[in-house]
Amino acid sequence: MNEQRYTPYLKLLSSKKILGVILIFAALAVYSNTFTSSFQFDDSFFIVNNLSIRALGNLMPIWKGVLSQPSRFVGFYTFALNYHFHKLNVIGYHVVNVLIHICSGFFFWWFIRLVISTPKLKYDPIAKNKDIVGFLAALVFIVHPVQTQAVTYISQRFSSLATLFYIMSLCFYMRGRMEKTFSKYKCFDFIGSGFCAVLAMFTKEIAVTLPFAVILTEYFLFYRKRSFFEDFKEENGKQVIFGLVILGFLLIIPKLFQFNFSGLMFGEKMSQSHDGDVITFGTYLISQFRVFAVFLRLLVMPFGQNLDYDFMLSKSIFEWPAMGSLAIFIGLFFTGLYLRKKNLLAAYGILLCMLSFSANFVPRINLIFEHKLYLLSVGFIIFSCAILFRAIKPFKKFVITVCIVAFVFSCLTYLRNNIWKDEISLWEDTVKKSPNKLRPLINLAKAYLKQDDFEPAIIYLNKALELNPNSYKAYNNRGVFYRLKGRYDLAMEDFNKAIALDPSFSLTYGNRGVLLQKVGRDDLALKDFNTALALNPNNAEVYNNLGLLYKKINQTDLMVENYNKSIEMNPSNSRAYNNRANYRAKEKRFDLALADYNMAIAIDPNSAESYNGRGATYYQLADYDLAIKDYSKAIAMRKNFYQAYNNRAMAYHAKGLYELALNDFNKTLSISPKYLQAYYSRAEVYVKVKQYGRAINDYSRVLALDPATVNAYHNRAAVYWETRQYDLALKDIDEAIELDKNLASAYFIRSLIYRSLGKKDEALKSAQQAQDLGSLISKEYFIGLKQIQDHKAEKGNE
After folding, report:
1. Which terminus of the chain has a smaller tally of CB atoms within 10 A, N or C?
2. Helix spans in 536-607 (H)
3. CA pair distance 310, 275, nearest whole angstrom
4. Rounded to whole angstroms, how far apart are CA atoms 65 and 752?
C-alpha cells in the first residue's frame, strides 16, 4: 500500500466536520458522568463561600478575590458568571468546564496544524497528514485521564482556561508570523495573540512561561539564518519585532506579585504535601524533579491517580529518587536538543513540555497536583505523536495505534470521573492512596459528617489525631461529631483543644457557640459567636446561628434580623433562607415560607433540609403528593435523614398508603431508635390497620422515652378500650387527665370506659365534663346514658 495515499477509512477521517463531531462526542462521552458531581475540596473556598463572586456587576471584589493578587481575575469572573445564572447548581459549572475542555481540544488541533505548517516543518513527511495527526493528538488530549482534575474539579478551571488562552496566543502568533505580507490580518493576529496572553496571565500564574514559549516557537520553527538580525532583515524586521513585543508580557505576572522574588522563591513554607515538612527553595527545587518523573509516568501510564499525594520533600540531590529524576530531566532536555535535526516536531514538543513544567519551580505549599498536567500534556502529546509517527509504518497503523490508545484512555477517564461523583467517593479513593496524610482523613470525615454517617467519621478523625495530635482542624471536626452525637462533654473538650492550638480559627468559636447554645449556656454562646465574627466579620453562617440562638430564647425580632443579615451578607446562604422559611411556616405564612424554601433550593439543589422543610409546608397545605416528592428528594440526598423518612411516612399515612407509611416509620426507627415521634405516628397507623397489639407496644415505647406524653396515654387508653381491656384503659386515661385536666377528649374516652364497665353515673359525669370543656357530644349519647341510668333505677325500685 502506498503510504501517501489515503485508504477509504482515512478519507473518511479527512473530513474536518466529521473529525470535529468525533472530538465533541468523545469529550461528552468521557465526561458524561461528571455533570452532577458535587463541589469538591477548594470549591468551597473559591466558589461556594466566596462572597466576591456574588455580584456580577461589581468588579472590584472579583479583582481582589480571595487571593492577595489579581492573577486569577478572569477565572473568578467566569465563576461570577456561573453564579449569576446557576447559583450553586453544579451542572452549570460542569457544563462550562467541559466546554472549555472541548475548545482547548479544537485549538490544540489547530495549534498542531500551524506548527506543522511553519517553514521548518511544512516539508516534513508528517505535513502531508497534518489534519489527521492534529486531530489524533487533540483526541488524546481530550480523553487523557490526567485531564480529569482540571476539568471535573470545578475550581481548576483556572488551569484549563489558562491553558486555552495559552494555546490561542501561540496559535495567533504563529498565524501572524506565517503571513507573508504585513496586513490588517497579520496585525489582528498579533493583537489577538497579545490579548489572549493577557487573559492567560490573569487566569493563572502558569502563563508566566508563555513569552518563553513564543521564543521557543520563534527559534525552533521560524529562525533559519546564522545571524538573528539577518533573519529579521529577510523576514522584514518590523513584522518579527511586532510579534516579539509579546515578550514584554514577561513582566506582567511578577508585577502582579509586586516583584516579591525573595518572598516567593526563598521564604520558608509549611508543606501541605507531606505533614511536617518545611519547604525551602533548595528542597522544593530538588523535589520538583521527582514530581516531573511522576508526571511523565502519568502521561504514559495514567494509573493510580490521586487528588492529594503524600509527597515527601527531598532533602538532598544525592538521594536516589532525586538523582534519578534529575537524570531523566536532563536526559530529556538534551534529547530535545539532539532531536532538533532529526525530528523537529518531537524536539519542539518535549522542550515545550519541559518549559511548561518550569513554572512549577516557583515554590508553593503543595508540591504536586495533577491539574498541573493540563498545560504540560500539550507539549508531551506533540512529542509522543511525532515519535510514534516516525516509529509506526504505514500511516494506517499509526492511526489505529493512536485510536487504541485513545479508547483505553477514554475508559480510564470515565472510570476516574466516577471517583469524582461526590466528596465521600473522592476522599475514600484519596485516603486509600495517601493513608498517612492528615488532610484526606479530615476531609473524608467531614464528608461523612455531612451525610450523618457517624461511625466512619469518628474512625477517620481519630486516625487523623493519631497521626498529628496537634491538628486543630481534626479536633474541631471531632468536636462537631461529638456534638451531633449528643456527647456534649467530649465535644466541648475537643473545641477547647482546637482553640488552644489555634486561637485565630474562627470556625471553632462558631461551632463551640452552637454547642453552648445546645447545653443552655446562651450567654457564653453569644460570646463565642461574637468572637467568631471579630475574627471573620464576613461569616454569614455565624449570623445564621445567632438567629437560631435568638429563636431559642424567643427573641423573634432579633432572630429574623440575624437571618436577614446572614442573607444580606451572603445571598447564597441557603441555610439562612431555610431557617427563615421554617419560622415563616411555623407562623403559617406558607406563601413566604415556600418562597424562602424555593430560594434555598435554587441556591443549593443538594440541600436535603430545604426539601424536607418544603415538604412539611406542602403537608400542612394538604398537598401530599408534592410533600412526598420533596421528602423523597431529601432522602436521596441523605441516606440517614430519619426526619425525612418520618415525614414521608406521615404523608403516606394521610393518603391512606399504610404499608408504605409503615415501611418508612420502620426505616426511621432503624436509624434513630429513640425518635419518639416515629413510635407515636407508627402506633396511629397500626390502629388504622387494626394491629392493636403493635400500637400498644409503640405507645408504651413513647411513654418509656417520655412519661409525660399526654397523648400517648390518651391514645393507648383508646386502644385498650377498643380491645376491651377496660381496667388498663381506665388507668391510662386517668393518667392523661392528671397530666392535662383540660383535655376534653380524655373525659369522653373515660366516659366510654365507665359505660363499658357498667358505671353509668361516672360515665355520665365524665361525658358532662367533656362537653363543658368543649367536646361535641351528641344528645343521643346523653339520652342513652340516662335511659340506662333510669332503667337501672326502676329495677332498683322493684
Report:
1. C
2. 540-552, 556-569, 574-586, 590-603
3. 8
4. 72
Contacts of 366 (CB under 8 A, 6+ apart): 271, 272, 273
Q: Enter the DSSP assignment of 707.
A: T
User: Which pTM does this prediction carry?
Assistant: 0.78
Query: Does residue 613 sit within a domain?
Result: no
Amino acid 260: pLDDT:
58
Q: Provide the Cα torsion 421, 423, 429, 430; round to 10°.
A: 130
Question: Tens of pLDDT along 412-449?
Answer: 999 999 999 999 999 999 999 999 999 999 999 999 99
Domain-embedded: residue 126: yes
> Measured in whole angstroms, how far is the alpha carbon of residue 78 from the centre of its chain?
17
Q: Which of 160, 151, 248 is nearest to 197 (CA)?
A: 248
Beta strands in 300-363 (DSSP E): none
Burial (CB count within 10 angstroms: exposed 0-12, middle 13-18, buried 19+), residue 638: buried
> Which among 293, 283, 488 has a CA at the least distance from the CA of 376?
293
How far is it, in rounded angstroms, from Cα 600 to Cα 580?
10
Determine the structural domain holding residue 151 and report its residue range.
8-257+273-418
- At 243, the amino acid letter reads G
Q: What percent of the chain has pLDDT over 70?
A: 90
| Category of 319 on φ-ψ map: left (φ > 0), alpha (ψ -120 to 50) or beta | beta
Quick check: helix, strand or coil at residue 519?
A: coil
CA distances from residue 51 to 46, 209, 530, 592 in whole angstroms, order as listed: 9, 31, 20, 25
Beta bridge partners of 278: 270
Residue given cell 426507627 in the structure block: 669
Say how far apart CA 330 and CA 317 lie, in whole Å.
Answer: 14
Percent of the chain with pLDDT over 90: 67
For the chain, the domain total comes to: 1
Backbone angles phi, psi at 479, to 5 degrees: -60, -40
Residue 355 CA, chain-centre distance (Å), reads: 33
Residue 425 lies in a domain: no
Tell me whether residue 116 is in a domain.
yes
Q: Which residues does residue 270 pair with via DSSP β-bridges, in sequence order?
A: 278
Full 3-state SS string of 71-87 = CCHHHHHHHHHHHHHHC
Q: Which three cell numbers stand for residue 686?
A: 397500626
